[in-house]
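User: Teach me something about this protein's shape.
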Amino acid sequence: MNAITIAMGFVVGFLVGLTGVGGAVLMTPFLVLVLKLPPSLAIGTDLTYAAITKAVGAWQHWKQKTANTHLVAQLAIGSIPASLAGVTLITIIRQAGDSAWMEVLLGRILAVILILVSLSMIWRAITQRPTHSSRPVHVQRPWWLTAVVGAVGGVAVGLTSVGSGSIVTALLITFYQLEASELVGTDILHAALLTGVSTLAHIALGNVKLDLVGWLLIGSLPGVLLGSRLVPWLPERWLRGGLGVLVLFSSAKLLTER
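Assistant: First, the predicted structure itself:
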């Protein structure tokens, strides 16, 4: 079982480093369906694993200068308080009774939004024509809009552990024009901050299986470093298309979770 856990950690870590998405929507079902963890424990354990994994990926992207730190700061203004609110809501619902219906409803809403966004991403990658511009035109948005974008991802992460990569990536693509490598780096740096704060809250609630996190990290740390190093060398069009496929996969997982 430990070998399977290490292998799964490597695959997810590689995908996180390469694209910024794929962690929670792959890891949480694995923890629940294969390792038979209760959902609340799976969410906390996944967030702890994701926080450490994405911190390594964020460090790599920071060195490569493929992260927009100004945008990360604006996202964090909304996402960090929202993630803490999400964790608090889990506690309130758990004390009041069964929270399964709430998680299912949230998962369905997120899945529908992600399917629409991911199909748009894939279509744009397929129909994109080569240009001679080395960088896309940067789109300026008010800071409060960026904070709202972060809050949407933050509350999803706090409630379900899903969203630090897939949701925020989809929203960044919708509202901003970034190079594919900068998109990934920005998302991973923000996700490292967001999952780190959410992890501390879940640890305080006793929702983390720390020994399992260790086995996952043995595989994921080399995976995320390898994926992060490959980002600048991949064609931007292919990477954008790959992001769309991964977000579509993520949304399908959300739609079928019970």
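Now, about its shape. Residues 68 and 140 are 13 Å apart (CA to CA). The chain has one domain: 2-256. If you'd like, I can walk through any region in more detail.
User: That's plenty for now, thanks!
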